[in-house]
Design goal:
about 80 residues; alpha+beta; 3-stranded antiparallel sheet; two-stranded antiparallel ribbon; 3 helices
Length: about 80
């Protein structure tokens, strides 16, 4: 299910979510970085995306955040590991 998250990103116009599951360097590369990111990076809930109380995700908050590249995870990504 989540294998495609190793390659792409979410677009607001398609899903209402915005961001990538991997760093710039790893986007488009089919590797295990997506799975490493869930465990190794710091995340916090991002609630009510676009004002929608039913649309929630996780945003990266650790020291490695790239202000020009939003990394995010969906709750289904986080549940996959935890």
């Amino acid at each position: 299910m989540n294998g495609v998250h190793t390659l792409g990103s979410a677009k607001k116009e398609n899903s209402g979510y915005e961001g990538a599951w991997s760093s710039r360097e790893n986007m488009g590369i089919f590797n295990n970085q997506y799975y490493r990111n869930i465990v190794a990076k710091g995340w916090e809930p991002e609630l009510k995306i676009g004002g929608n109380p039913n649309k929630n995700a996780w945003k990266r908050i650790d020291a490695g955040v790239d202000p020009n590249h939003k990394e995010m995870m969906l709750s289904s990504d986080m549940c996959f590991v935890y």
